[in-house]
Structure formats: C-alpha cells, structure tokens
Amino acid sequence: MDTSSTIIGLIIIILIAIPLFFVFRSNVINKNKIKEIKKKYSQNNHFNFEITETQNKKVLALDEKNKGFLLMDFNSTEEVVSFVNLNTVNSCKLVATTENNSGKIIKIEFEFDYKEAHKKELIQFYTIENEKINQECLYEDHVLAQKWTKIITDCIS
User: 69 - beta bridge partners?
Assistant: First the structure.
C-alpha cells in the first residue's frame, strides 16, 4: 500500500514538474533574447531602455533620457525589431487601418514624422495576419498602442 502510494505520488510530481520546467526555461530564453536585442540597439550604451512593457509577444522599450524607442514583435514567423531615435522625430501618432466595408481593424501602426526631410515612417504594431484566432488580441494591443503613443509623445515634447 505504501509503495503504490509513493509511486503514484512521484508520477504526479513528475507530471507537474516537467511542464513547469519548460515554462521557466522558455521565460529565461525570452528574457535573454530581449536583453541581447536591447544591448544590440543601445549603440555602445548610449541608450538605456529602462521603461519596458511586454504583452502578447510584443515588447516595447523606451529610453526617456536619450530619447530612444524600441519595438520587438515575436508574433510573426520572423521576429521584427524596430528602433527609432526620438531626437529626430517631430511627432508620433497611431494609425489604424480598417477593412473596406466594415469597421474591422486589420492593422495598427505607429506613424513617426521626422524633422528633416519631412519624411514619415510607419512601424507595424499589430496585423491580423499574425493572429491565430481572429482578432483575439486586438483590443489589448490597441489599448497598449494608445498608451505608448502618449508615452512617446510626452518623451518627444
């Protein structure tokens, strides 16, 4: 009786421990990948991305002092990293693209208006092609993008 209870207990512990191990391992790998990308875009420690927020496999980072913005998107098949030096930017606004006949949002982008050459750059934040379930993360991503548009605008001014 004691031996069978012990064996069953060990099996249950193993069944719980194995998935936890893989979850913790995945988190450590993701954190290391984010650190490496931040280090790569710090430009010899000029930018220190102290404000960081993560949601739905997207990481947004900002250096308020030296005015740098970094967006990492791990949703697509190939990870996308975008860096903007906010010292060269006049303004930032959010652009939501909808389908032709419906109000269904299919793309959300940050639009940066540069000081020199009056050039505008669009950085993709959300696209429906990366959704596995139709518009599952749209609301959360839209709210996050609005919040970060305000943060970036405050940093620019």
Answer: 62, 84
- Distance CA(115)–CA(53), nearest Å, equals 27
Tokens read off for 112: 């940066």
Angle at 124 between CA 118 and CA 130, to 5 degrees: 165
Render each residue's pLDDT in the chain as its tens digit; 157 residues.
678 899 999 999 999 999 999 988 988 888 888 889 888 888 888 888 888 998 888 899 999 888 999 999 887 778 889 999 998 898 899 998 888 777 788 889 999 998 887 889 999 988 877 776 666 678 888 899 999 999 999 988 8
Chain centroid, CA 154 distance in Å: 20
Mention every residue, 6+ apart, whose C-beta is less than 8 A from residue 45. Answer: none
- Tokens standing for residue 24: 């913790």
Amino acid letter, 117: A
Q: How many whole angstroms separate alpha carbon 41 and alpha carbon 151?
A: 20
For the chain, which residues make up each domain, given as ranges? 1-41, 44-156
DSSP 83: E
Q: Which two tokens stand for residue 87?
A: 């010292």
List beta partners, residue 52: 61
